[in-house]
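Handout for the seminar on molecular recognition.
Each group receives one record of this type.
Step one: identify the two inputs.
Step two: read the structure output and locate the region that could contact BES.
Step three: write two sentences on what you found, then compare them with the reference statements printed after the record.
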Amino acid sequence: MLPDRISSYISDHLEVFTAELARFLSIPSVSTLSEHAADVRKAAQWVLEQLEKCGFNGRIYPTERHPVVLARSPEVPGAPVLLVYGHYDVQPPDPLEEWQTPPFSPDIRDGYIYARGATDDKGQLLTYINAVQAVLAVAGKLPLNLIVLAEGEEEIGSPSLSKFLADHRHELRADAVAISDTSQFAPGVPAITYGLRGLCYLQMDVRGPRFDLHSGSFGGIIHNPAQVLADVLHKLKNPDGTVAIPGFYDNVLIPEQWEREEMSAAPTDLEALKNYLGVSELVGEPGYSVTERSSARPTLDINGLWGGFSGEGAKTIIPAKAGAKVSMRLVPNQVSGEIDRLFTRFVSQLCPPGVSVEFTGLHHAEPVLVKRNTAAMLAAERAIEIGFGKKPRFKREGGSIPVVNMIREHLEQENILLLGWGSPDDGPHSPNERFSLGDFHRGIRSAAALLFEMGK
Ligand code: BES
Ligand code: MN
Ligand code: MN
């Protein structure tokens, strides 16, 4: 349910809400860049201030890196408790020259707000705060108890959150957790996400001679680390695109029949997708649809590679070193630590004597499937139908949200609602990231409706 007066209040205050979002988006809270640490703190402060204005009681908790904001609404005795999680940190905005307007000077055009963090995740997080503002303005009190947990380290893999959740588990007891950090099924078709991929992200550094050598004098008698890197990377995949690491697929859960049907019913316009991506071909594992390949099957990707001379002109050398960053998206029941071991063992075996390879773990996040058909899930379904005017579809996302598994583990919480208000073409992590103001509106409505549906 969403009382009419609250619905109207939201519609009447969209400009105010959008202006608040623009202020939030103008804080360059890039968590991975240390020069932005003060901005990340500023964003935390901003979130806390918004909540305090709603009468929430909260604090900013420092961690080894970026702070956690934890705040709770005035107590409504006997009412259910909803925990809302979101992140106020963002990815780096580069390449800057690809942005039509600067990433931290939010610009509104064609019904979208453009800025880094617009959809991931500031815009989506803010919908809950705006919903609370609307409910309080009209009704004077919330229909349930709300806890807001916002972190500034999601985009660097949530390194502090496991400990934070364990330390604060008593304060975080709730009937359900809502997270809006995913996207709709298709533009205009809302979704509830019940699965996320995990991540195993490694850097490999290949080293050969002590320093760069004249390739004329020494070519032909030693291994070239850049060549070794290329050979190894090549052997990670089979010609059909599947991953060649022995054991990689051992624990992969095959999607169930209903899932395959739901996924094949996805209104994916492949031509539109190719257009959006600027590619003429879509590729992938034989026997699986595009939707399955991008969400329910594991992958391996080279995220970056380097080695030797890449400046202007030519330099005749054998480089002393070369390296690559490789990420693997995992699906249930793969375990990131195990995949890490399989990868490092396989690559170490492929490296010939005379060169060394060193691995650095960058991210480990576990894949998840959350419980469906729970009372909380039904409440979320109703809330979305109210907010979007359409029933949500169920989907799995290809991205990762490390906190989801931590919540299950440390809070022993199975009622996790992944309710994405964003659209698949919002461009998170890309230049010109955006959030549709229509989706922002529907998100606020859905969030407000969720407070009532959960409060029943
Ligand atoms: N909001 C995304 C997760 C996501 C991505 C959901 C795509 C749905 C579709 C989140 O902020 C994110 O980017 N996560 C990282 C996790 C990593 C840094 C450990 C990711 O998936 O790369
Ligand atoms: Mn996110
Ligand atoms: Mn992200």
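Reference statements: The pocket of manganese (II) ion (ligand 2) is lined by residues 87, 120-121, 154, 181 (CB under 6 Å). Residues 4-196+367-454 form a domain with the Aminopeptidase fold (CATH 3.40.630.10).
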